[in-house]
Give the backbone structure.
Amino acid sequence: MTRIVAGESAVPKRKRAIEAALAIGLVLLIAVGAVVASTVSRNTEAQAAEPTPAAELKLGYFGNVTHAPALVGIKQGFLAEALGSTALSTETFNAGPAAIEALNAGAIDAAYIGPNPAINSFVKSQGQSVRIIAGAAAGGAQLVVKPEINSAADLKGRTLASPQLGGTQDVALRSWLASEGYQTNVDGSGDVAINPTENAQTLKLFQDGKLDGAWLPEPWASRLVLQAGAKVLVDEKDLWDGTGTGKPGEFPTTVLIVNQKFAADHPDTVKALLAGHAESVAWLNEAPAAEKAGVINSALQESAGAALADNVLARSLANITFTLDPLAGSYPRLLEDGVEAGTTKQADITGLFDLRPLNEVAAGADLAGAGTSSKISAAGLGQD
């Protein structure tokens, strides 16, 4: 029985009941749709986050003999072949800080670089910018000076050069001068003036008598000695006793770094890069001297615009060890040197290294030709 109240009919009641049922149904439909949409969204995000090979890898390096693994890897096709369908593009730099700026800006994805700029980038970004994924070269840096300079005592009031403020050789020079009792400042003032200068300009300025010396990587140290009459005051290898690495006389000059986000998005591409890099290092350690010199000079002609004299290249190569080991145990000292030089802030650099891809690539392979024969250690400063 339907009760009818005065002024009201049964029809509106039934209408409201139908409307209520429709509203409830609509709410349920919206809820189900939200669940479905959420599920689709999560699946889409998961698919988007799935690591994939990169379409392109942009690689930075210097036209220096200490970057021979890059020179050879590009010239001989080791890197491009290992990368497969990933296109390889390259850009050359004069010094590390400039390469770091390009990497942080996304202009390049990976770079061959000195250790101190890598440390600086890691510290400034609070560990979010780069990871060191392999070593490339050890040694090959010297302080070369005018012939009349015979000791550190002769450097007071002199003007020296380094490739770039905050670069690996710049830090090494400032640290050594501090150990000899000299004060230097990043603005060029102090007991010894340090003028960061491009390597090619350093050679000309030294020849013109406008510089008293410079702390340089190869081949520039050799060029000043053999082509400009300089002499070696400090060979940096004599400053490293093997503490932390077990390898006296070896210090990291060039390492391979990668943008952290690129590595997370494209781990297979990073492994492919490392495979080509390992092949390049092995080739450098095994190729006949004449063939090695020919390939390096051809690559330097293309990247730096000029080949080297035979004696310059021979002297340079004699001072360098090509190795996959980044010598991670030396990095606490490198950090302290940068802090003392005023180019780096004190910080915890744990996490700077990720050598897992390198050790995966190397697993089961004969690494003797690549400068190591065992698992490569991050020395507690990352993962290996």
Remarks:
- Residues 73 and 280 are 5 Å apart (CA to CA).
- The first helix runs from residue 10 to 49.
